[in-house]
Design brief:
Elements lengths: L5 H10 L4 E3 L39 H13 L3 E5 L2 H13 L5 E5 L4 H9 L3 E5 L3 E2 L4 E2 L4 H10 L3 E7 L6 E2 L2 H10 L4 E4 L6 H4 L15 E4 L1 H4 L7 E5 L6 H11 L6 H36 L6 E2 L12 E2 L3 E5 L7 H10 L3 E3 L1 E2 L3 E5 L6 H25 L22 H6 L2 E5 L12 E3 L4 E4 L7 H12 L4 E2 L8 E5 L1
Parallel strand pairs: 1-15, 3-4, 3-7, 7-9, 9-10
Antiparallel strand pairs: 2-11, 5-6, 8-13, 10-11, 12-14, 14-17, 16-17, 18-22, 19-20, 19-21
């Protein structure tokens, strides 16, 4: 029987449809755009480390020149091209700034890859929690003063790792954090995966990159918000509070030994375009976004996360390219709103949360695409207004606040929990037991439960509710989320 390339056929069919992507990757499949330049058929440039094309694991020629150029562009001491995504940079940064068995201070809303770095280096974790923006049920920013208190209380902390911006575009006060962290002579690592465009959009009203605000290691996913292939990212390192050679050793461990020249050429092409024409285009993009956001503020039932929220819940700044629309207070939850946008309007969101949807916009978005999203949301909002007037329908107001629960009780390190003797029990029977598994929604991949933490009744009820409502609960071996592995 002949095997047909079903995935390829499905992708080709989808690319020819009228579905518009408000999700990653940032190039938005705009193949007619100038950022594509003269990019050839990928098969024609897919090579290995042959004479004249350098070696990413020992760069001496063209790749070294390109990364040195990127370092000057960004203002770092070293910039690494990452072809294993931001994950490889996060793992390298964590392992390269801590000692095995040491301790790290991390924001609780880190991506799962950061927790994998903790596992690999057998670290103990201290958590700093983001504030909660109650009206939206969103995680807000981190308080620099809280980090200061925790560093003062625990002199064994070897590095601080935070996420800014968050998946929803919320930016913390990185400059203040850097000043505090450096007093203790340790490095500040910033997961800026969702802020790769910051470095090119400061003059267009976007937040300032953590690299310019004193962070020592900054990881950016080019593919999330810039016109670059999925899996491409960069890591910037500044000397002073980090051992550059130690981080260098780890990056060669966590990067594939067969780096794709196609992906590296994509990074090169993206940065070249963004440093010139792309930076100019950011201004037009910003103006189009501002106009759309102004119009969306007229919605009566649905609510847009506005820049006026700055100053609340630890929010230092907001990335306006993330369109966060709350359905709380309406008859719809986030899943229903996302489904309606997909099925009726052929608009695919990046994420559907409990009571909101997240749309990622980038410099590659067309004015027509942005207009489609605006018109769809305004039409849905008007329909909700009409439904409410005609039926007197009772509106929902059950915002789920993931991190409003008490801080989890950490009973053992992540590594010890991973390696402990374990047994499988029903999820409802796990209360009081120590989890050996992660539980998270993906996207965004932020853990609700981390191995080594004691399960609570509140968390069990939350996971059961998410699963019942159709949210993408992952991490457990039991894909139906009816059982969990715990320490025996």
């Amino acid at each position: 029987m002949e095997l047909t390339p079903e995935l390829l056929n499905r992708l080709k069919e989808y690319s020819q449809s009228d579905f518009y992507p408000f999700h990653m990757p940032g190039h938005k499949r705009q193949i007619q755009e100038k950022f594509l330049g003269e990019f050839p058929n990928p098969y024609s440039i897919d090579i290995t480390e042959i004479e004249g094309f350098d070696n990413l694991h020992h760069p001496e020629g063209i790749l070294k020149e390109s990364m040195d150029w990127a370092a000057k562009l960004y203002g770092s001491d070293r910039t690494y091209y990452l072809v294993n995504g931001s994950t490889s940079g996060i793992l390298s940064a964590i392992c390269g700034t801590t000692e095995n068995g040491g301790k790290i201070l991390m924001s609780r809303n880190c991506h799962k890859s950061a927790y994998h770095g903790v596992f690999l280096n057998n670290l103990k974790i201290k958590y700093v929690y983001p504030q909660i923006l109650d009206e939206f049920g969103l995680q807000g920013g981190l308080m620099a003063e809280k980090i200061q208190d925790m560093l003062k209380e625990d002199p064994d902390i070897q590095a601080v790792f935070v996420v800014s911006p968050t998946y929803d575009g919320i930016v913390s006060d990185i400059k203040r954090m850097g000043e505090i962290v450096h007093r203790y002579r340790i490095p500040l690592i910033v997961d800026e995966a969702h802020g790769a465009h910051f470095s090119f959009g400061r003059e267009s009203g976007f937040p300032v990159s953590a690299l310019e605000l004193g962070a020592d290691v900054v990881i950016q996913s080019l593919h999330k918000t810039l016109p670059a292939f999925t899996q491409t990212a960069v890591m910037h390192v500044k000397k002073g509070y980090v051992d550059l050679d130690k981080i260098d050793r780890y990056i060669h461990i966590y990067q594939t030994s067969s780096p794709s020249y196609l992906l590296m050429a994509g990074i090169d092409n993206c940065l070249s375009w963004m440093s010139g024409e792309g930076k100019k285009r950011m201004k037009n993009f910003s103006e189009n976004l501002s106009q759309m956001r102004e119009n969306l503020q007229k919605m009566k039932v649905l609510k847009l996360l506005k820049e006026e929220e700055k100053g609340k819940a630890g929010i230092f700044d907001l990335d306006k390219s993330k369109i966060i629309v709350s359905s709380a207070g309406s008859c719809m939850d986030g899943i229903s709103l996302g489904s309606l946008l997909r099925e009726k309007y052929h608009l695919e969101m990046e994420m559907c949360g409990p009571d909101y949807v997240t749309a990622i916009t980038t410099v590659a978005d067309s004015p027509e695409g942005l207009s489609r999203l605006e018109k769809a949301l305004m039409e849905i909002d008007e329909g909700l207004c009409r439904e409410e007037r005609e039926s007197g329908l009772e509106m929902r107001n059950d915002i789920q606040k993931i991190n409003s629960f008490k801080a989890p009780v950490i009973c053992m390190t992540l590594s010890d929990a991973f390696n402990a003797d374990k047994e499988q029990v029903g999820l409802s029977d796990s209360v009081g037991k120590i989890s050996t598994e992660f539980i998270y929604l993906y996207p965004p991949g932020i853990p609700l439960v981390v191995p080594g933490e004691r399960m609570t009744e509140e968390m069990v009820l939350l996971v059961e509710d998410y699963k019942k409502r159709g949210f993408p609960v992952q991490g457990l071996k039991d894909q139906f989320c009816k059982s969990i592995f715990v320490v025996k």
